[in-house]
Amino acid sequence: MKKLIxxxxxxxxxxxGKEFEITGDEIxxxxxxxxxxxxxxxxxxxxxxxxxxxxxxxxxxxxxxxxVALGADHGGFALKEFLKKILKDSGYTVxxxxxxxxxxxxxxxFAHAVAQLVSDGDCFRGIMVDGAGIGSCMTANKVPSVxxxxxxxxxxxxxxxxxxxxxxxxxxxxxxxxxVAEQIVKVWLKTEFGGGRHQARxxxxxxxxxxxxx
Length: 214
Known about the structure:
- By secondary structure, the chain is of the alpha/beta class.
- About 45% of the residues lie in helices and about 15% in strands.
- The chain is built from 9 helices and 9 strands.
- It has helices spanning about 5-15, 30-40, 50-55, 75-90, 105-120, 135-140, 155-160, 180-190, 195-210; strands at about 5, 20, 25-30, 40-45, 65-70, 95, 125-130, 150, 170.
- The protein has a 5-stranded parallel sheet with strand order 6-5-7-9-8, sandwiched between helices.
- Helix 4 (about 75-90) packs across helix 8 (about 180-190).
- About 35% of the residues are buried.
- Residues about 50-55 have low confidence and may be disordered.
């Protein structure tokens, strides 16, 4: 079944940019064409999408394509435990690196552990929860081949995957509730990397990374 592009989807795209990437196999409604013209949206045929394996820096190990590394500090412990059940119910194998209580710990230890599992190809994605999500994002991005993104809503989660091919997600356990976190995680895990012009930008990130990681 061909994908239908409606007026509503054109309006949503207008919030992100003026180019609406298509494969050429979609059905674009007349209202969508009219709305695109009104908003200055241009339909552009996208380059073939890079697959998860080809876009990744490190080849995934056998069985890693359904494994998610999960970690938290004391501020994110409760949300981690909630998300663990969501992930398992969604069919993922969870590699829980801790922490295992609300006793005070240091978030860099656990963010590093999550990022390392992704960097080594043991897990295809990683999720880390601390109080705000910021410190863990900084930590994870110090690990080679990791592109960590701190997301706070569905739009930022989609963008981090489509544009940046993020492989580690960081969340603020004290900033968002369980419902929002669940929505972010589910969308983030299923959103594909856009490839095309975005891959060229990821390549530049990798080039910068290689200057400092020998």
